[in-house]
Amino acid sequence: MKDMTSNQPYLLRAFYDWIVDNGLTPYVVVDANKDGVDVPREFVQNGQIVLNISPSACVSLHLDLEILSFQARFGGTPRFISMPCNAISAIYARENGAGTVFVAEGESATTDESQGTADTKLESVDSASEQTPEQSDTKPPRPSGKPTLKVIK
């Protein structure tokens, strides 16, 4: 059988569209130590960074089969952000945690291994690593503490 390309970029785009279409805020968890990841290093914690990729938080979002890139403000300074799709370990909605965790190739999943993902719900987000552009004061308070994952079957 012919080797197939990774399904992660397709699933990433589908989850992004699904979260935005439901009026929620898409966040991605990025492994900042992977090659090709260009993110503000001062916001990286434990080798990861959580990024708000909602249409209101970033400009010129580009997502193809190899790379996710966009422009956003960090501490008022505009930055260009880019990363290979395989550096993204999860995508989820900030408001309810609905999304998915991507299982790295070669790792075993607790759910459907052939799909390459494990459906999850993130219970909370570490607010120190969550970075969004400057916005009005109408945002709800951010949860605190370490992020936790719960497998939903």
Describe the structure.
The chain is mainly beta. It has one helix and ten strands. It has one helix at 8-21, and strands at residues 26-31, 48-52, 59-63, 67-74, 77-84, 88-93, 98-102, 117-122, 130-131, 149-151. The strands form two sheets. Strands 9-2-1-6-7-8-10 form a seven-stranded mixed beta sheet, with helices on one face. β4 (67-74) and β5 form a beta hairpin. The longest helix has 14 residues, at 8-21. Mean pLDDT is 79; it is low at 108-139.
* Estimated share of beta-strand residues: 35-45%
Give the helix/strand class.
Answer: mainly beta
Series of H and E elements:
HEEEEEEEEEE
Q: In angstroms, what is the radius of gyration?
A: 15 Å
Unreliable stretches, pLDDT < 50, 5 or more residues? Answer: 108-139
Q: What average pLDDT do the residues reach? A: 79
Distance between the termini: 29 Å
Largest sheet: 7 strands, mixed
The geometry reads as globular
Helical coverage, percent range: under 10%
Number of helices: 1
Strands, count: 10
Order of strands across the main sheet: 9-2-1-6-7-8-10
